[in-house]
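tool_call: predict_structure(chain=1)
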Amino acid sequence: MEQTKVKILVIEDSVTIAMVQTMLLEKNGYDAKHAETGAEGLRLVEEWRPDVLVLDIMLPDTDGITILKKINTWEPDLRPDTIVLSGHDNPEVTFESLRQGAVDFIRKPFHHEEYLLRISAVVQLRNYRKSNEALQAQLEGDLRKLSRYFSKDLIHAILDGSIAADPGGETMTATFLMFDLRNSTTMAEQMGPTEFFQFLSGFFADISDLIYSCNGAINKFTGDGFLVTFGLRNYSPQSTLDALSCGMRIRTHISMYNEVRPANVKDPIGFGIGITTGEVFAGNIGNVHKLEYTILGDPVNLSARLEAMTKNAKVDILIDEKTRQVGGDRLKVKKLQTSTVRGKSEEVMIYYPEQFEAPET
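tool_result:
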């Protein structure tokens, strides 16, 4: 594939000096054009989109500083890298040119080799900058993709080395939300695998948007549900409030969805949510062949237990005592009978959240 030539526009009122420049440039593999006036030069910059502009300070209809100021009003992608060419000995002309965005300054008369070296340096810097911009855009795109799977705090911790690439981890506090879609097996039988997959993808996409808008991160999917973390690696009481707000917004969203659900969803959507807060272990588990970043601890297990208990309790959301305490006066709850939860030796205080007033952000 043939490489595109670097385009260089010379704005110079001296035909002789302009001819010398264009000949030098073309001889060294550049695509060069010439304009004798500022107006013609600006037109070519807009239409031809040169990579580099070699600009004379004194022109018959304007001056180079005015042209630089005009170019500075354009979008960055439209601006060429500009080298000012002038016979002025006044250093203020040089300083003003650089202040207005020129990347270099060449004095007349110029040595041919020096001229080409300065052109080459500007072209290389432009290429490096474009390459860096492309890499930055790619990195930002990759980070956006990763943020669909991990929290931003976790991503940055991996990138800055806070999370080592070896087995091990640390204890930390967070709030956990376990979500489960009810009667998914029956729905799958009614719809068929392809139609059910399409339904599930769209339905979970909307729920995921709610989760991320509440500063949550989906830690793992469980087929027809998922575990969400709030404040992992960066916990504050606001993380628990975010989780409560998220649970209430999911409740409202599904209620509205059921009112206008599509014809292929025969029965109203049911769901269960368990929300807990506490200390867990988070880190890498595995060996030299495979590592998995995972979360282990009683709050995670309890969130799953509470989610399962919503079926017998005939409610949609259950929360633990710690979460209720953080919710404070903003949270209106109904206390359920103190219960023994499977896997726990002590009785657990369980609450049904009726209303929650989310704090203004």
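agent: The chain has two domains: 7-139, 152-356. Proceeding to next step.
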